Amino acid sequence: xxxSTVEELNRFSISVHDLEDSQKFLSESxxxxxxxxxxxxxxxxxxxxxxxxxxxxxxxxxxxISNLKIEWFSELTQKELALLKxxxxxxxxxxxxxxxxxxxxxxxxxxxxxxxxRFSICDSRIDIQLFQSLLSKLIKQxxxxxxxxxxxxxxKTKATLPHKKMVNIKNDNE
Length: 174
Fold this sequence. Notes:
Strand content: under 5%
Radius of gyration: 24 Å
Helix content: 40-55%
Number of strands: 2
C-alpha cells in the first residue's frame, strides 16, 4: 500500500507514535519480573498502543482515515502476522472489553460458591522477541511509507515551481 492522500498520511503519522510507544512499553516491561503487576501493566500498555492504529477511530470524515489495515504492511512473517492478530483479539476481547470466554464466572451448584477466573495477559505467554520484531517492522514500514509520500510531494512540487533566474550578488569585499 502506498499512501496517496493527506488523510492516510495523517493516520500513519499518528500510528507511528503509537507503535513507538508500544515498543517503549514492551522494552520497559523486560525490566520487571514476568507476571509482576508492573510487568503486566506495561505489557497491557504495549498491546493497547499496538492496537490503536488498527482500531476504528473517527466515524465521520475527518483529517485522518479511521484506521490502518493489516494488509497494508508487507514483509511480516506468518508468525508475526499470527501474533498481531492474536494481540488485536486480546485487546478487543480481554483488555478493552471483558468477554465471558476470557472471564468465566458462575456458581457451583453443589456448594453454592461463586467462582470466577481472572484474565491475566501473562497467562497468554506472549513471545516477547517476536513482538519486538513485529513492532520494528511495523514502525519501519510506517516511516518508509510516510517518507515515500513526502518525497513524491516534494518531487511534484519541485517540478511545478517556476525556475528562478540565478542572480550574481556582488560582494563588497571583492
